[in-house]
UniProtKB/TrEMBL annotation:
Protein name per UniProt: UDP-N-acetylglucosamine diphosphorylase/glucosamine-1-phosphate N-acetyltransferase
Gene3D superfamilies xrefs: Hexapeptide repeat proteins
Key words, A-Z: Acyltransferase, Transferase
Entries under InterPro entries matching the protein: Bifunctiontional_GlmU_bac-type, GlmU-like, Trimer_LpxA-like_sf
């Protein structure tokens, strides 16, 4: 990528990825705990895509309570909408942008230069407005994460593997279809599995494990240090983020990382945040019995909005858990830190820090939640630091108005 990494943008060596206020709310609950650009779609997070394509470092302009964990670097910088999923043409679009211009698509700000002392996007005032010729791929809704995932796996696969050679599969009992579309990083272990890349590429990250009897179809990404358990059935357009374990049946779903769905049960057209755990035989419905379009909780309107989709499963925020045999209805949203359990179908919108299920909810008190979260993180050999604890405490307070418990769902 030597020629492509010549970064002409006024000699900038860094990019500032900003949260668009008009977009961020529509990506809750995932943006409670991260900037928009920290969302994983495909193999990489949005920020990692920009880093790879430009060869530049990235920083974030986000909510105040997140800014310490996701800092902004000092100096003049090119500010780019964090919801923009870049491709090979993105560089050529940005190269012609000057410091006195602001790049828009319609009414959406796409990119502009910001000085070191400018703290908000009011910096675009007085600049010449330049409209993009073609529509950028913007992550506007939570369901876009799984909608765009197959295409993003393909783009990221090319970005990560160009000019590199895959490690070999030495196991004689594993079967690879279209091996030219399969890339395996060093340290991956594959035993008696079937990898079918006829329909799209398969990326297997470093120090991963695919156990006996696993059936995998591309496009698929297994990120570093993750495991596919014995007998798993994984359909295309699925990403398993780093340090995760999956089993059972998955289809067109994205797991951000550090989460487990290790047992039988179906997960389809769904997005799972970090530090989540799905109990054995958890199942998600991704299609209504009457085949009508799915409505999903929309934080920006405080009610359900029509997705326009026939297939839409579960949106689960970071640090959420569910017990064995949990059944999630079509188009369910679970907030940060919730613990769902019990018989029947729980309500379709479960606020952050909820405790319970179909028979009713109470509040998962923050000290009790924190005790669990610390234990979960410690199992990965990590520590839930003070900075992260304060973010979660802030979210607990921010989300309290949602925890007005009703007898109906």
């Amino acid at each position: 990528m030597d020629s492509g990494r010549l970064f002409y943008f006024c000699h900038m060596d860094s990019i500032l990825l900003f949260d668009d206020p008009a977009i961020r709310g529509s990506l809750l609950p995932f943006t409670f705990t991260r900037p928009v650009a920290d969302i994983r779609v495909g193999i990489l997070k949005i920020s990692e895509k920009w880093q790879k394509i430009t060869g530049s470092s990235v920083s974030f302009l986000t909510q105040d309570y997140l800014q310490k964990k996701f800092p902004r670097k000092s100096g003049n910088t090119l500010a780019i909408n964090g919801a923009w999923l870049p491709d090979s043409a993105s560089l050529s679009v940005l190269k012609s942008l000057s410091s006195d211009q602001a790049l828009y698509f319609g009414k959406t700000l796409i990119a502009t230069y910001m000085g070191e002392t400018e703290r908000n996007l009011g910096a675009v005032k007085g600049k010449e407005i330049v409209q993009m010729d073609s529509e950028p791929t913007l992550l506007l809704k939570t369901w876009n994460i799984f909608q765009f995932n197959g295409a993003e796996i393909r783009k990221d696969f090319d970005l990560l593997t160009q000019g590199r050679k895959s490690a070999n599969v030495t196991d004689p009992h594993s079967k690879l279809y279209s091996p030219e579309n399969i890339f395996i990083e060093e340290g991956a272990v594959i035993r008696a599995a079937v990898l079918n890349a006829d329909g799209g590429p398969i990326y297997i990250g470093k120090d991963t494990e695919i156990q006996e009897g696993a059936l995998i179809r591309g496009p698929f990404a297994l990120c570093d240090n993750s495991t596919v358990n014995m007998g798993a059935k994984i359909k295309g357009d699925t990403t398993v983020g780093p340090h995760s374990k999956v089993g059972g049946e998955l289809s067109n779903s994205v797991i951000f990382g550090y989460s487990n769905k290790g047992h039988e049960g179906f997960l389809g057209n769904s997005v799972i945040g970090e530090w989540c755990n799905l109990g054995a035989d958890t199942n998600t419905s991704n299609l209504k019995n009457n085949y009508s379009q799915v409505k999903l909780w929309d934080y920006t309107v405080g009610n359900y909005s029509n997705t326009g989709l026939q297939f839409c499963g579960l949106m689960m925020g970071d640090h959420a858990k569910c017990g064995i045999n949990t059944m999630f209805n079509t188009g369910t949203v679970v907030g940060i830190g919730s613990n769902v359990f019990g018989p029947g179908f729980p309500r379709k919108f479960i606020p952050s820090f909820a405790w319970g299920g179909e028979e009713g909810f109470s509040t998962f008190l923050f000290p009790k939640f924190l005790e669990t979260a610390k234990a979960v993180v410690a199992r990965r050999g990590l520590e839930l630091n003070t900075e992260e604890q304060e973010i979660l405490r802030t979210i607990f307070e921010m989300s309290k108005n949602y925890r007005i418990w009703e007898t109906t769902s």
